[in-house]
């Protein structure tokens, strides 16, 4: 027996319902009685009479893809069916299969979704199916408060999904849409890089310039090139690890103050010898844009990039109210599971994470990137500001970002299928990249899994400071980098070198989940039952240094 999950495209829809059926066939040889050909593209015309349960309808010839599972669970194959009679309707086909082939039909969507979630591939689904599957895929993330925001998906110039989920303001229950603005974090780097490359195309600088040419007196500036800054190979220390940032992120910083503090830090490595992600490097690139163009960075990108593309809902973050900007949140304790994000001053973010935008505007930005409107990416050794991957058998340009003021973002451009995926959230969580990859799989007919609700997401609120105080302390990753854990009555909070504390989800004894970076954290105990180490998703262990941590 073989069971087939059939996604049908009828010539009409009733109440916009798209028939989806599961058919189990005990006698596959009877396909021929229906005038169907397995794995063929040639159209033939056998004689089919009304007694076979098929009534002639004037419809166009169509191709159907069936995702099949045989009685052998190890076998999974894709079967293409083409009605041999051009007047078969899809609904008639389904009925005929059920009547003539000893089949049973069931389901109106759940079966096909189960098949997809189980890893069954099929042809690229229709816009209606994509829309339904996207909603099902996003729903668990909304329930767990891992995501709230806007999503836009477009293929070959056609927008398939463009809508908001959750709340742009949880207190006022304001629902976002495709014009809601979000901080886009490191997607800003794609724009900073484009600004530099635009100035290079105008002959106002070259990527090989040492930065001292544009920032006279910059320490080590004769050994660091603009390309080093673009490619994260400058050795400049990321400001998130500076002691000055940990103690001063709530205070504004000027460009001159930032550059002075940066030069006071030792280089992490000799420029050009290796790669090390550096937000500081993109702050320096923004400073170079200002020196060369004579315009503030925010005004430059507005004039040279946003206005030509009609990106009217994009701009630079500032301290204070921005009309239409979703409120930013971090993970929080139950029952709300969100809390207002830290008030980091936006002057720290210039060039690396300082832009806000809507999904509609980022759609314009990705189209311009694809069309090389500003920058000939194909002529560069690497698409600076972007990540470059191979996924689903094709090249992908992507970038994701988090802003410590409560936003996260992900964008991707799949070259072969001209697919654009945009996910913007006003909850700071790395889940957006995981979501973006899953959304692309849905559209491309690739394997994906619907997310499952985590075991502790709806746990009742615990108020037990004594229970959680056992975990407090500092945990050393390297001699230079440590994590700090604090306890409160509701649970524990964790902070990295930046000193920004964020709650963890409690999932059981010694088990927690860090939604911001989307990783499980487990605490290990010694033979006496005292906490001795922190296990970060099996990637590394951090030894506990102090048992008298801060409260």
Distance between the termini: 63 Å
Largest sheet, order of strands side by side?
21-20-19-18-26-25-24-23-22
Number of domains: 3
β-strand percent reads 15-25%
The low-confidence parts are 1-121
DSSP strand tally: 26
Mean pLDDT: 81
User: CATH homologous superfamily of the largest domain?
Assistant: DD-peptidase/beta-lactamase superfamily
Cα-atom Rg, whole angstroms? 27 Å
Count of helical stretches:
12
Main sheet characteristics = 9 strands, antiparallel
Estimate percent helicity: 10-25%
Overall shape: it is: globular
Structural class: alpha+beta
- Determine and state the CATH class of the largest domain: Alpha Beta
Assign the CATH architecture of the largest domain. 3-Layer(aba) Sandwich
CATH topology of the largest domain: Beta-lactamase
What are the salient characteristics of this protein?
alpha+beta, Beta-lactamase, Lipocalin, nine-stranded antiparallel sheet, 25% strand, globular
Report on this model:
This protein is of the alpha+beta class. It folds into three domains: 2-123, no CATH class; 142-444, DD-peptidase/beta-lactamase superfamily (Beta-lactamase, 3-Layer(aba) Sandwich), CATH 3.40.710.10; 465-544, Lipocalin, CATH 2.40.128.50. The chain contains twelve helices and 26 strands. The protein has a nine-stranded antiparallel sheet with strand order 21-20-19-18-26-25-24-23-22. A hairpin with a 2-residue loop joins strand 7 (149-155) and strand 8. Helix 3 packs antiparallel against helix 11, helix 4 packs parallel to helix 8 (279-293) and helix 4 (188-201) packs across helix 9. The longest helix is centred in the N-terminal third of the chain and has 17 residues, at 127-143. The radius of gyration is 27 Å and the shape is globular. The termini are far apart. The model is unreliable at 1-121 (pLDDT under 50).
